[in-house]
Design a protein that fits this description.
Shape: globular
Largest sheet: 4 strands, antiparallel
Distance between the termini: 33 Å
Number of helices: 10
CATH class: Mainly Alpha
Length: 271
């Protein structure tokens, strides 16, 4: 955790429900809070397990409340992707967050497989998975589809992970955590004028150009100069789990753009 993150995040407990939440401040002029909320709503529509996010303020500062992914804070812990990857390969650069070309789609698939990472238990899952999604990487493919839709540029090795639960015999059970931390999405770094310009323009100066130049923090091959785009990362992972990919695309098509727009209009009216 960076010095800034340690200073601008804190845990709090809902006295009524006993649930824990992480309050995350949105840095000035970054718009980091609203993409997290939008991403959680899109994930809900797509039937993807995700961290529950609510917009919030603290002392008039904007931010979000993110529900703790651990149902039992005593027995459960969140292990980030870099922790899993370095267990398999001690030379893996787990202390670096960015420009880690060793963070490849294939290595993620191998880590989930070799660590025998399971799917979440139904009470935590919060949704019914398609029959074609029968392993952790198949579910991860769905997370990458979400990234492609919202143009998430921050799927680095600490922005995915597993929930580790201690068994009665002292061993650990690993389950793929819900998708979380989508603050760097939806062009949130653009001001209103630049965002409007992108929406009006076409080609390289419009949304297509912005999306193609975006980078996901996942690589095709170790040593590559640039990470894959969110779209390319989804396609690369989907090629390894074609049935899970196709099931997710069917769900996406069934939701449709009109239903997505209607959902957010209704959410906006209820605020």
């Amino acid at each position: 955790m960076s010095r800034w993150e340690a200073k601008h995040k804190f845990w709090l407990r809902d006295r009524g429900t006993g649930r824990w939440f992480l309050f995350k401040y949105s840095r000035a002029n970054t718009g980091e809070h609203w993409p997290e909320k939008v991403a959680s709503e899109v994930a809900e529509l797509l039937g993807l397990p995700h961290a529950r996010v609510e917009l919030a303020t603290c002392e008039d500062a904007a931010g979000v409340l993110v529900e703790d992914l651990r149902r039992d804070r005593e027995a459960m812990s969140l292990l980030h992707g870099n922790e899993l990857l370095v267990e398999l390969d001690p030379s893996y650069p787990s202390q670096r967050d960015y420009r880690v070309s060793e963070h490849t789609i294939a290595r993620v698939e191998q880590a989930l497989r070799d660590h025998r990472v399971e799917l979440l238990d139904p009470p935590i899952l919060g949704t019914v998975l398609p029959a074609e999604v029968d392993d952790a990487f198949g579910l991860f493919v769905g997370y990458l589809l979400l990234d492609a839709i919202i143009c998430n540029t921050d799927r680095h090795h600490e922005n995915w992970g597993v929930v580790a639960t201690k068994s009665a015999k002292g061993s650990r059970v690993l389950q793929l955590a819900p998708t979380y931390d989508h603050a760097s999405s939806l062009g949130r770094e653009l001001d209103d004028a630049r965002r409007s310009g992108r929406l009006r323009s076409k080609g390289v100066h419009g949304v297509p150009g912005y999306v193609e130049r975006a980078r996901s923090a996942l690589y095709e091959t170790a040593g590559d100069e640039k990470p894959l785009s969110p779209r390319a990362a989804f396609l690369r992972a989907g090629a390894l789990r074609a049935s899970a990919r196709d099931a997710r695309l069917r769900r996406c098509e069934s939701v449709g753009l009109q239903a997505l727009e209607q959902h957010f209009r209704e959410r906006n009216d209820s605020v």
